[in-house]
Design brief:
Elements lengths: L3 E4 L5 E5 L2 E4 L5 H12 L11 H10 L8 H19 L9 H13 L4 H22 L27 H14 L4 H10 L3 H6 L5 E2 L4 E4 L2 E3 L2 E3 L8 E4 L2 H7 L23 H8 L1 H6 L9 H12 L4 H8 L3 H12 L5 H9 L19
Antiparallel strand pairs: 1-2, 2-3, 4-5, 5-8, 6-7
């Protein structure tokens, strides 16, 4: 369709030419027709939209803490630098088409990138930038070349917990070989906290007398932000065993702010700590490697196996009941005692409510 005019509901005229949708800022038809004629004759030049590379520089400069998480900004920068800019740097925002994105999708898969990674590049980072550009440039109003990109359903990776026996051997390793980090490892195994949540704990968050821990923030890449999900803000009751282990930490007596510190006296960086300290002990113990995050998976798995209420487990761990049911109950149901099923069948509504006082069992070392 050739360039033409269209009047909006407020009476203003727009010049339409393919994906170009430009307000002529007039309600008078003859003025609009005159500008359309000039446009067709090449005398009315509309300001071109910036290229992806030009807009990216302005866009990424706005992604600052604490408005955006440091990890999110890091991912944006890496994915644009490594994948998006080499392909689209000189392409104008107005020229991005669904076909181009499909070709890009195939190109990334051809580089042996996982489908999940490709989707993060295209459907998360690139799309986020285009969404912000659409809000800024009237010419992009109503356009979304990403909407028709199809993605296969990604297989959901199941949790890979340690067994209770493996957990206790790992804890024993830290007692025998590096007692300094024993409280850190023990607490994560026996509270199910995310490592980023434990890293952010301050002594103001812990009441050892009432055995409660308030979780309201996370620490990642050296900065603090809100916890991972809306379920994550919570106060949990910890076992006496965890209390006694936390009492061993020197940071409280020294008047330091954070509960868990590294050997330099700095707040714990869970990612760096696990990179340098986790694989070695597992290898020495001749255990199959699992991520440090598996401490959380282990806690949830053991809680479900003991017959704890799934809703109570979800609330305690700051996640959703749906996640607990999908990732844990489905594969562990056969391991539960018969009386657990009978109890649930007898009073199903009562057992769907998270009762007070749920806490992990005490480990025997």
């Amino acid at each position: 369709m050739p360039a033409h005019l269209k009047q909006n509901e407020y009476g203003y005229w727009y010049l339409i030419d393919g994906y170009l949708n430009k307000s002529l800022k007039t309600k008078t038809k003859r003025f609009a027709e005159a500008q359309l004629k000039q446009y067709n004759e090449g005398k009315f030049i509309l300001r071109p939209l910036p290229t992806v590379g030009e807009y990216y520089q302005k866009w990424i400069a706005r992604k600052v803490e604490p408005l955006y998480r440091r990890g999110q900004v890091r991912d944006y920068k890496y994915q644009f630098r490594a994948h998006i800019l080499p392909r689209f740097k000189d392409v104008r925002l107005s020229d991005i088409r669904t076909g181009h994105l499909r070709d890009f999708q195939v190109e990334l898969v051809g580089k042996q990138l996982a489908v999940k990674t490709v989707r993060n590049v295209v459907d998360a980072s690139f799309r986020a930038m285009f969404r912000d550009a659409r809000a800024e440039y009237q010419e992009l109003e109503g356009r979304d070349p990403f909407i028709d990109i199809e993605w296969p359903r990604a297989p959901r990776a199941k949790p890979d917990p340690f067994s209770a026996e493996e957990r206790d051997k790992i804890i024993r390793y830290w007692i025998d070989n590096d007692f300094f980090f024993y409280p850190w490892v023990f607490t994560l195994f026996h509270t199910g906290m995310r490592p980023s949540e434990a890293s952010a704990l301050t002594w103001n968050d812990i009441d050892l007398e009432t055995r409660t821990v308030s979780i309201s923030k996370s620490r990642y890449l050296g900065t603090e932000s809100a916890p991972k999900t809306s379920h994550s803000n919570r106060t949990i009751e910890i076992s006496e065993a965890v209390v006694e282990v936390i009492r061993l930490l020197p940071s409280r007596a020294l008047g330091l702010k954070y509960v868990f510190l590294n050997k330099l006296g700095e707040p714990m960086n869970a990612k760096k700590w696990s990179e340098h300290n986790w694989a070695g002990p597992l290898k020495k113990l001749e255990m199959r490697h699992r991520k440090f995050y598996a401490t959380r998976h282990t806690f949830i798995t053991e809680a479900i196996r003991r017959g704890e209420n799934p809703l109570a487990v979800a609330q305690y761990c700051g996640t959703s009941l749906d996640m607990i049911q999908k990732d844990y109950c489905g594969t562990l149901r056969l391991h539960l005692d018969r009386e657990v099923f009978e109890k649930s069948a007898e009073k199903p509504l009562e057992n769907m409510v998270a009762g007070p006082g749920f806490e992990p069992g005490t480990s025997r070392l």
